[in-house]
Amino acid sequence: MKFRLVLLKRLNPSLEIKWVFLMVFSSRKSPHFALVNFVASSCYREGLKLLTGAVNNFYFQNCKFCGLSLQISQKKVVPLESSKKRGNETHLIAMEQQVYHIPALLSETLAGLAIKSDGTYVDVTFGGGGHSRAILAELGPKGRLIGMDQDMDAWANRLDDERFTFAHGNFAYLKNFLRYYGVDGVDGIVADLGVSFHHFDDVERGFTFRADAPLDMRMNRSASFHAAELLNTYDLERLANVLYLYGELRQSRRLAAAIVKARPLSTTGQLVDVVKPLLKPSQEKKELSMVFQALRIEVNGELDALAKLLNQSREVLNPGGRLAIITYHSLEDRLVKNFMRSGNIEGRQEKDFYGRVNTPWRVVNNKVIAPSDDEVARNPRSRSAKLRVAELVTPFEKSK
Ligand SMILES: C[S@@+](CC[C@H](N)C(=O)[O-])C[C@H]1O[C@@H](n2cnc3c(N)ncnc32)[C@H](O)[C@@H]1O
Hints:
Layout: H1 2-11, E1 19-24, H2 32-46, E2 49-55, E3 71-79, H3 81-85, E4 90-98, H4 106-113, E5 120-123, H5 130-138, E6 144-149, E7 164-168, H6 174-180, E8 186-192, H7 197-201, H8 227-233, H9 236-247, H10 252-262, H11 268-275, H12 284-299, H13 302-316, E9 317-327, H14 330-342, E10 361-363, H15 373-378, E11 386-392
Parallel strand pairs: 1-2, 5-6, 5-8, 6-7, 8-9
Antiparallel strand pairs: 2-4, 3-4, 9-11, 10-11
Helix pairs in contact: 9-10, 9-12, 13-14
This protein binds S-adenosylmethionine (SAM).
């Protein structure tokens, strides 16, 4: 299906396919789940809307048969009069597809990694597996890929390929994980930081202000610290710091004071009700997302994990190995930029006798790589992505 659509569009780029219609006659247990998911994800990638038909009000949510882990939510159900006459309750369902994630800067990241076909690579933010799938496609039979994610939901997207290993864990402990999996050194590390679409789309996880849900925001659901604990236990000063540093919110103290006054909070809806009156109506959505972003960064210790990943990268990369990192906000980007330019996250530059900066890294792209207008139009959530790539020139001397 995907190939036919792509082919059709390639043969005739001016051809405007906007809708795809698919009729499925199946029972609840039918593997047609896989077919529908496959078609739906192809349509999603191609920017096409899918209209599908189903018998007996059967609609599709999580695919249990294919690895795509695509979720489709029901939008509009229109019973078909003619089918009732035949004794079947056939419904036409206009569906909105939710994919687990659409990878940002995919071709740029692949180019940055300069993949060796027999190399070993680690994707420390596996998510929906978009970057991993593309890396695996470039590896030969001797290549190896480890996909890591701290969210066990990502496991459903694991790749069915003997060269691939899924590791559930935090990349802050990358070195130990690699040792556990018997990997001595890797030729490339890719990190696509932050949360996936899935985290926002699964509203029960509390990452979005657009729905009322428990104040959770943990990427790793076996961790004990969640957003409710943060909001109900941090003192005013500490809470204001989180909002100011990670959300860049100028009115952080006022917001923190309102939260402290309204305690205890247990749902995202309550949090929104408390902070909304303090936000400028014209900036409301932007600032609410900054509040949620700040809390999420703190709940998941995101900057600390990134610093640990960067500091271990030199120890796990082989000479000439590449480090490719995609960031989504300025604090992350600053850490990565400092690290790649100077070899430390503070950006402390140590110079040699000739005034050259002493660093084990060669920066591959001096200018940060951002998505093209075309990519942003196709995938608006990629708009703040920034890619930086560095090559390890002076490897870490391992103690014997
Ligand atoms: C932006 S998504 C990556 C999407 C992926 N590149 C793709 O193509 O589908 C980030 C993923 O990294 C995971 N993640 C974030 N921080 C992590 C950490 N410290 N350790 C392990 N996984 C992490 C999240 O759970 C999420 O699934």
